C-alpha cells in the first residue's frame, strides 16, 4: 500500500500540528481517533491530514485547513472537545499543539517510469 502526503495547497491556509506521547492505557483510543478523522471531514474548509509515528512513540498529526474559521469550527466542535478531555485524562502523557498560517507551499511527485 502506497502512502503519500497531503498535497500542497495554494496559500494562505492553516496547519495544526499536534505532537503527542501516549500513555500505556489506550482503551478506546482507536475508536475515538477513527471517529475524529471522520468528523473533521465534515468541517467546511478542512483540507486533509498527515500522520507519523516514531518507533519510540512520538506521534505527529498535521491537520490542514483553508482558513481560521475552519480551524475554529474544528477546535470548538463539542464531540472533539469531549475527545480532547478524555485524551488528557487517559491517552496522552504529553502533547503540544502548534497552529500556523502557511505562506508558502509546494510539492514533488516522482514521475512513473
From TrEMBL:
EC number: 1.14.-.-
Domain ABM: 12-86
Statement: the UniProt record of this protein carries the keyword Oxidoreductase: yes
Annotated GO MF terms: monooxygenase activity
Pfam families: ABM
InterPro entries with a match to the protein in the record: ABM_dom, Dimeric_a/b-barrel, Jasmonate_Hydroxylase-like
Entry keywords, A to Z: Monooxygenase, Oxidoreductase
Gene3D superfamilies: 3.30.70.100
Enzyme category, top tier: oxidoreductase
PANTHER family (alphabetical): ABM DOMAIN-CONTAINING PROTEIN, BLL5343 PROTEIN
Protein name in the entry: Antibiotic biosynthesis monooxygenase
Taxonomic source organism: Amycolatopsis nalaikhensis
Lineage: Bacteria, Bacillati, Actinomycetota, Actinomycetes, Pseudonocardiales
Amino acid at each position: 500500500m502506497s502512502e503519500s502526503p497531503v498535497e500542497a495547497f495554494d496559500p494562505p491556509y492553516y496547519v495544526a500540528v499536534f505532537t503527542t506521547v501516549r500513555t500505556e492505557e489506550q482503551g478506546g483510543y482507536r475508536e475515538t481517533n477513527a471517529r475524529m478523522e471522520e468528523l473533521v471531514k465534515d468541517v467546511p474548509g478542512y483540507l486533509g491530514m498527515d500522520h507519523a509515528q516514531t518507533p519510540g512513540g512520538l506521534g505527529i498529526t498535521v491537520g490542514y485547513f483553508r482558513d481560521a474559521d475552519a480551524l475554529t469550527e474544528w477546535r470548538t466542535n463539542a464531540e472533539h472537545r469531549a475527545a480532547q478531555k478524555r485524551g488528557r485524562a487517559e491517552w496522552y502523557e504529553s502533547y503540544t499543539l502548534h497552529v500556523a498560517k502557511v505562506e508558502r507551499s509546494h510539492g514533488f511527485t516522482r514521475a512513473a517510469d
